[in-house]
Design a protein that fits this description.
The protein has 68 residues and is α+β, with helices and mostly antiparallel strands. It contains 3 helices and 3 strands. Strands 2-1-3 form a 3-stranded antiparallel beta sheet.
Amino acid sequence: MRPPPPDWVIQYGLNRGNVDAVHAGDCWAATKSGRCRPATREQALDALRRQVPPYIHYRPNSGLGVLD
C-alpha cells in the first residue's frame, strides 16, 4: 500500500537552491515535477511568508488560512 500524500509540498527549482511554489499535498502537478518534497504546515506557511507563490490551481494558501 502507498502511504497517504503529505498535506503540503514545496517545489524546488532546477538547482534545488530556490523554492518555486507551495502545493497542496494532493496536487497532481506536484507529483509530476519530481522536484517537490513533503513539507509540514509550518514549512509551507514560512515559504508563503517569504513570498514563495502558491500553486495557482489548488491555492494552498487558502487551505493554510493565508489570503492574498
